[in-house]
Design goal:
46% of the residues lie in helices and 13% in strands. β12 and β13 form a beta hairpin. It contains 32 helices and 27 strands. The strands form seven sheets. The chain has an eight-stranded parallel sheet. The longest helix has 31 residues. By secondary structure, the protein is α/β, with parallel strands linked by helices. α27 packs parallel to α30. The protein starts with 7 loop residues before the first strand and ends in a 7-residue tail after the last strand.
Length: 890
Amino acid sequence: MKAVPSCTYRLQLNPDFTFYDAAQTAGYLAELGISHVYLSPVLQAALGSTHGYDVVDPGKVNDELGGKQGFDLLTETLKNKGLGVVLDIVPNHMAISGPQNRWWQDVLENGPSSAFAAFFDVEWESPEAYLKNRILLPVLEDQYGRVLGAGLISVVRKESRFFVSYREHLFPVAPRSMMNVLQKAGWRCSSERLQFFGESLGNLPLPTATDLENTRIRHRNKEVIFALIDRHFRENPEEASVVDECLEELNADTEGLDDFLERQNYRLAWWRKNREDLGYRRFFDIDNLVALRVEDDAVFAETHRLLLKWVASGVVEGLRVDHIDGLKDPAAYLKRLRSAAPEAWILVEKILSPGERLREAWPVEGTTGYDFLNLVNGLFIDPAGEEAMTRFYAEFTGEVKHCEELKFEKKMKVAEELFGSDFNRLTHLAMEICENHPEFRDSARSDVMKVIKTLAVSFDVYRTYFTPWRDEQRDTEDEKIMEEALYKTHERLPEVDPLLIDLFGGFFTKKPPSAEEAEFVARFQQLTGPLAAKGIEDTLLYCYNRFIALNEVGGEPCDFSVTPERAHSYFREKAEKFPLTMNTLSTHDTKRSGDVRARLAILSEIPLEWAEKVKRWSRMNENKKTRGMPDANTEYFLYQTIMGAWPIDRVRLSEVMRKSVREAKSHTSWTNVNEPYERALMNFIDSIFEDDEFIQDLNMFLRPLIRPGRVASLAQALVMLTAPGVPDIYQGTETWDLSLVDPDNRRPVDFAMKIENLEKVKVSSLVKSSEDWDDGLTKQWMIWKVLNFKKNRPDFFGPGSSYDPVETGGNGVKEIFAFCRGGGVVTLVPTCFVSRKAEMEKAKIRLSEGTWENIFDNQRYSGNSWAGADDLLKNFPVALLVKENRGKTP
């Protein structure tokens, strides 16, 4: 039977919060009403990993989290408490920093002849001669020659194996390149065995010999030779010392060492070379996360063996697939995964742009919920505030470019600065294709590059899913997306031959394509997702600061709010097509927690008061700037951040702001740190924290908004818990949580306090006191009530349960949102909390026939009549009504 979670709880595992720590939460989570614990990646990750997405060994449980023993204890503990397990899996890439990834180490040692060479998405046939059959490793702090001349690169021995050493890095030496060193040592100490070892290594088949027979002989002989060397060194340590002397002489000879390094299967390079010549696909722009070719049967089998074993045994009931858009053929991967795990609850981390739908042909339950998050976020933003907030943003910051214009500009910026090597790779492939089309043979490389970049940047979605290499029915949705992107490309490049633009667009629907055309389509589609993520999520969302409540992963800052009609349509569709998709408000990747966004949403109701306050603060703090720094756009971002997260200490705020301005890439960045600008920003933050007048003014303005912000938090949480889909609670957010972008949102959770608080709320009939509101007990109490009610009556909420808008009336009809699940449970929440609260209280909803009971205050209402919002919400700011005698409430 397929797993059907009622609510998941996300735990972020790390060396400071291990399987053993997680096991201690099992009883609490079961009491709260959770059905499944949703774990961050658990496979062996790079040493010291704080998140687990940098997997180095997919066949092993992470030792730093407690290893197999700890994992077994955790899963058994959860099972005993009636809790299932959902795992976050990473099929797209692996980490390659350090020696832990034995597959990658084997590739560096043996080049194309490695048994694992085909596992990674490496371009062995590079158009650059110096990289043909070699991997560029951009790890050096400066130009190669300078680093080499400074003596920072050397060859060292570790027992019987040899490595190229640079700083903390160790790279395995190509066995054939050791011939001269070993023979020289052999001649020096009259050791025929050392001479034999050197000669034998030199006679190994070339690393470029990739046929089965040569690779078999190479691997066998290499292992035998090194086993003999190991034994010889242990029995003759004095000869090992002679080898070390020869290595020291090699390291002292810059020219000789350079020649030695040229014979490796990799090329060490300055870290900035990744902008041009990197010969492997990465996760986004992170050089030490190399992409896997999971479309290959052997790669899928090896990377999923342990995971699927857990699924088959029932230890794991759900899988969350990370970065599905990075894969060559997501649909084929998911079909293979579903075939191997037919009963698993499978979700994909897929960012859906406004209006985009998850592909119904994909055999999954849904997404990880960013589409839900942004829709609900917009539902609680007042559309009446848009004009005033837009006008003030331009007035205060001087930023007058339209959001859509900025989006194109920022995507093009990251295309040029972060993905240069990827576009060079695509352009080379495109030039080869042009050679096969006589009418385009003379196309300028610059024009081809320009077309490819502009086409990629012009996509309104993260990617398309064309598969011209398969004989399948054409995807009309993808064709519409491509048609729009081509239209924009023609508009933006009037100077380029329009037929050249159409040539590239035609590759996506041509059947059958040539091998080069098919590869172009696959690589292009794998690039547009990272381009959108870095251009929008990690750049635009830190630059276009009109209203940062909108600047969320998967969000659309160019839009403003969401109408109730649009929300109802969305939920009806989810109930019909993806009833088990995930609903969430906060994740490990969100820029701001749901509670921060809920508080910020209140500002949309008072845009004029907010504008006046910002102008006052700006005048108050003008003398705290250093030569005009920070700029007005950053200052406005800062004030909004403070509003959303206050009280926040200056250390947390400073780190969040440092990351934010680097992501914005306007004045500083991760790759070009502007120290004077960042120092001015940090000094500005320190100064405003020391200004009692500013802090007092901030508190006076914020104080009356805190309670409305919390009501908004409760409202969006109740929608999450009761709308079609499976709610997910990110660790710690069952009480108030004012976390910001990672690593701020990955701080330790005080579970002891959560457990203590739950015991308090379980004996409360209704949480009303201001103390309870401040401690977050109100939110925890509401979640506990709803989740345990859902456990008692899953028929109201599970697959097949209906979703219907509830008829609303009265003067405040636009200020409430209500829907009915399964014909017997009604959710009612306000959507306006300050400016039109009085109107909201005049709204009413029509209850169908029967007697209804509010599970929060146990008040009863007669059906087949209108019920006023003022009455329904008089004791608690949101309501969940159930037809009487339809089930017990906790």
